[in-house]
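Quick question, first post here. What does this chain look like in 3D?
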Amino acid sequence: MPVAIITGASKGLGRALAEALAARGWDLVLDARTPEVLKDTAAALEAYGTRVAALPGDVTDPWHRTGLVTEAGRLGGVDLLVSNASALGAEPLVRLAELPLDGLRRALEVNVVAALGLVREALPALRAAPAGAVLTISSDAAAEAYETWGGYGASKAALDQLAAVLGVEEPGLRVWAVDPGDMATDLYAAAVPDDDGHRPDPVGVVPALLRLLDERPASGRYGAPALLEARS
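> Answer (accepted):
Ran it through. Tokens below.
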């Protein structure tokens, strides 16, 4: 069975994608910072009959990243690496004039540096896979100027550029950056706690990600709404 590493997998889009892959028979290595929630997620996914390795930890820790790749190797390799774990830089979000520099550093460490570190750990296995792929979760804040989203958006823009260059440097892989669009997630609630507007469930984004896996389009940046529209 193919093997996926998914960071930030205990809830939200990470969990929704993990469940969809488990239903397809994928084996999974899951990361999240909260052990109890991750344990519950792993137990739910094992009900599909798949093998699940759940490793709580922080993706900025190089030993944790090594552990994720090692567990994937025990399951058979790495066919898909999903960088979904994210940090905002400030909760709730603030204007750049008020953004703590330590918060910006944290966002860059989680969203960019750790993502590249995990790619580097997993590259030998990804290259050896029959259809190796890297999927990074981006944001419209990476491309649009939204008030208070500057630090987070800058980190996602940097992640987009890393994904774009990786796609050029590793032509044997598929490297996709995906803007999932608006979603009802804990991350968004922490970013803008006063916004009680309706947002779609992350489950609705998963078919867009599965389409990438099924059709394997060229490496590049994709918007989930466009992928969903084209599939309907």
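The beta strands are 3-6, 27-32, 52-56, 80-83, 133-137, 174-179, 220-223.
Helices lie at 12-23, 35-46, 62-75, 101-128, 150-169, 186-191, 206-215, 224-231.
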